[in-house]
Structures are given as structure tokens and as C-alpha cells.
UniProtKB/TrEMBL annotation:
Its EC number is 1.3.1.76. The lineage of its organism: Bacteria, Pseudomonadati, Pseudomonadota, Alphaproteobacteria, Sphingomonadales. This is precorrin-2 dehydrogenase. It comes from the Bacteria. The keyword Oxidoreductase applies. NCBIfam families: cysG_Nterm. Signal peptide: none annotated. Pathway: Porphyrin-containing compound metabolism; siroheme biosynthesis; sirohydrochlorin from precorrin-2: step 1/1. It holds the Pfam family CysG_dimeriser. It comes from Sphingoaurantiacus capsulatus.
Length: 257
């Protein structure tokens, strides 16, 4: 990962904007849409956008950086402390696509595909899930139970599939709670034929993304990175006799004939 993606709360914060013209206007709209206030005074800001060209852009960026601001310079990724991604807005769900400054056109093309893929109801679904999370602990006291509950509801074709329109999220959540059962150990074995995660099937990727525990025998880091960040990872030569509760995945290598 070349850059760390962050979502910053700009509500009520001042952001420096230098320059005029269409590019500066676009940055102003972006800042204001996120709740920020545009200023030219760097003493009250932490972020700055520079929409200037040539030596003026370099001088302004250098001066702002000396004052401790993080700077974005339009069309100059070499001068940027941070980059603005292509954005799919389904607030509070925000999808950001970045290419590290390599190609804004590529990021735009990906955004257009995702715009068509993600339903307009996704934001409302997120708000309903957020409203129900606190009360869920009364029914499902452990983090593992709650994680499994949401995983099951949001798998492809499930009642809260995020890529499909959802009529009544609360009704779906209530129905799932009424039928919830204790976790039992389950296991998915994945035979690795290469070190390339792109060779994993969709079914295998889905299992990795949902697993509570990943057992592996020298699995490559690129494969392990497809698992949940909070999943337990254990390097083993053989599987333990007693599996932990929830979903476990066992990664092992095979040689192609």
C-alpha cells in the first residue's frame, strides 16, 4: 500500500484554498460539501489546496508545508502530501478510488463502474445498521457473535445484501435475531495453486473475508491480506483437533499437474 487512505471530518474546520478557475471551484465545492470552510489564512488550517501553476504552485506548496499544513496541489502529485480520490457518495457510505496520482482517468473509470453497481439505498441501509448496532449487544453479547450475525445478513443474496435494494432493513434484522443460534465450528479448506490472490475464486475470497480464524501452512502475505484484518492467523502444519467457534479457513498449497 503506497498511501494510507483516511476519511477526515472537515465539519467546521477551515481549509486553505489558493487559486482561481474551474479546478479551484471544484475543490471549493468538495471542501464545502464535506462541511469545511474555505480560507486563505494558513494559521487557522491544517489542510491546503493549491490551484496554481508552475513556479507559483511550487512556492505556495513549499510555504504552506513550512507552516505545518498538509498540501494538495492540482495536477502535481509530486508536490502533494495527500491526494483526492475519485468518490462514490452514498453517505454515510463513501467509496474512494485512488491510483497514487498515476491516472485520474483510471480512477474516474472505476468510479463510473461503481456508481452503476452500488444502489442508491446503500446510505439508508448503513444508517439503519448503525442505529441497530448498540441494541444488538443485548441479544448477542460477544463481538464474534455480532460479527457473524452481520456477515450472514450481508452475504450475496442475503436479506441485507449491500449490492441489492433492501425494502425494510429493520424487519430483516428482527427476523434474523429471532432465528439466531450459537456459533458452531465450521471449516473451509482452500487449496492454493499459486501465490497470486487473483487466482482465488469468488467463493474462496468470500470465505477468507468472513473467517474468524485463518490456519495456514506458509501462505503468502498477499493471500493472507485478503482475510479480515482482525481475523486470527495461525501458522500450522496440521489442523488442530478442536476447531474454534465460528468460521475457520485452512490455506494449503498444492502443485498443479
Amino acid at each position: 500500500m503506497d498511501r494510507l487512505p483516511l476519511f477526515i471530518d472537515l465539519a467546521g474546520r477551515e481549509v486553505v484554498l489558493l487559486g482561481t478557475g474551474p479546478a479551484a471551484d471544484a475543490k471549493r465545492r468538495l471542501i464545502e460539501a464535506a462541511g469545511g470552510r474555505v480560507t486563505t489564512d494558513p494559521s487557522s488550517a491544517q489542510l491546503a489546496f493549491v490551484s496554481l501553476t508552475g513556479d507559483a504552485a511550487e512556492a505556495a506548496a513549499s510555504d504552506l508545508k513550512r507552516q505545518g499544513l498538509l498540501v494538495n496541489v492540482v495536477d502535481r502529485p509530486d508536490l502533494c502530501d495527500f491526494l483526492i480520490p475519485a468518490i462514490v457518495d452514498r453517505s454515510p457510505v463513501i467509496v474512494a478510488i485512488g491510483t497514487g496520482g498515476a491516472s485520474a482517468t483510471l480512477a474516474k473509470a472505476l468510479r463510473e463502474r461503481l456508481e452503476a453497481l452500488l444502489p442508491a439505498s446503500l446510505g439508508d441501509l448503513a444508517r439503519r445498521i448503525g442505529a441497530r448496532r448498540r441494541g444488538l449487544a443485548e441479544h448477542l453479547p460477544t463481538p464474534e457473535q455480532r460479527r457473524r450475525f452481520w456477515d450472514d445478513l450481508m452475504t450475496p443474496g442475503a436479506p441485507l445484501d449491500p449490492l441489492a435494494p433492501v425494502g425494510d432493513p429493520d424487519a430483516a434484522i428482527d427476523a434474523a435475531l429471532a432465528g439466531d443460534a450459537e456459533a458452531v465450528p465450521s471449516l473451509v479448506s482452500i487449496a492454493l495453486t499459486s501465490d497470486d490472490p487473483d487466482d482465488l475464486t469468488l467463493r474462496q475470497l468470500r470465505a477468507l473475508s468472513r473467517a474468524d480464524t485463518v490456519f495456514h501452512a506458509n501462505a503468502p502475505a498477499a493471500i493472507l491480506d485478503r482475510a479480515r484484518r482482525d481475523a486470527v492467523r495461525e501458522k500450522v502444519t496440521t489442523l488442530p483437533e478442536a476447531l474454534p467457534a465460528g468460521l475457520s479457513v485452512f490455506l494449503y498449497r498444492i502443485d498443479r499437474a
